[in-house]
Amino acid sequence: MDGQKTQCGLDVSLSVIGGKWKPLVLYHLRDGPTRFSEIKRRVGGISEKVLVQQLRELVAMNVLVRHDHQQVPPVVDYALTPFGETLVQALVPLCEWGNQNRAQVAGTLQRSSKVAGGPS
After folding, report:
1. Which of 3, 74, 82, 106 has the smallest set of CB atoms within 10 Å of its CB?
2. H or E, element range at 46
3. How confident is the model at residue 14 (pLDDT cuts 50, 70, 90)?
4. Per-residue b/e over 7-38, b at no fewer than 16 CB within 10 Å?
5. In the predicted model, is pLDDT for residue 43 greater than 80?
6. DSSP 3-state helix, strand, coil percentages of the chain (rounded to 5)?
7. How far apart are CA 17 and CA 26, in angstroms?
8. Taking a C-beta distance cutoff of 8 angstroms, is the pair 25, 43 a contact?
């Protein structure tokens, strides 16, 4: 963040959840502590390396807490902090908007890829 204050706090929000994967990770943690392998399964398409990085960043921002159960084999789960819960509450309307507009956005993306010479 550049320190400039704007009327819109999206710059603050995006500094925490920016990128493709963080909002999806947070969404899938909304129901309680979740193990790494389960997060990876729920967030289809994310590599293990990227997931580790995203989780570390969210822990560093105090959005998630990492709990190591000190077991063999290792058992680690992640949960939202109270601060993180407020962020997920803000993401839910975006999720609903996406569900309501999925067909329109998919059609627009398909048309724009045809115009750009993409696969038909």
Report:
1. 3
2. none
3. confident
4. eeeeeeeeebbeeebbbbbbbbbeeeebebee
5. yes
6. 55, 10, 35
7. 9
8. yes
State if pTM tops 0.85: no
Are 84 and 58 in contact by the 8 Å Cβ rule? The answer is: yes
Measured in degrees and rounded to the nearest 5, phi and psi for residue 113 equal -70, -30
Q: What pLDDT is recorded for position 114?
A: 77
Closest CA to 17 of 80, 98, 109, 99: 80
Beta strands in 1-120 (DSSP E): 34-35, 64-68, 76-80
Is residue 32 within 8 Å of residue 39, measured between CB atoms?
no
- Tell me, rounded to whole angstroms, the distance of Cα 59 from its chain centroid: 13
Q: What is the DSSP letter of 40?
A: H
Write the CA distances from 118 to 7, 21, 104, 107, integer angstroms.
Answer: 38, 25, 19, 14
Q: Are 51 and 39 in contact (CB under 8 A)?
A: yes
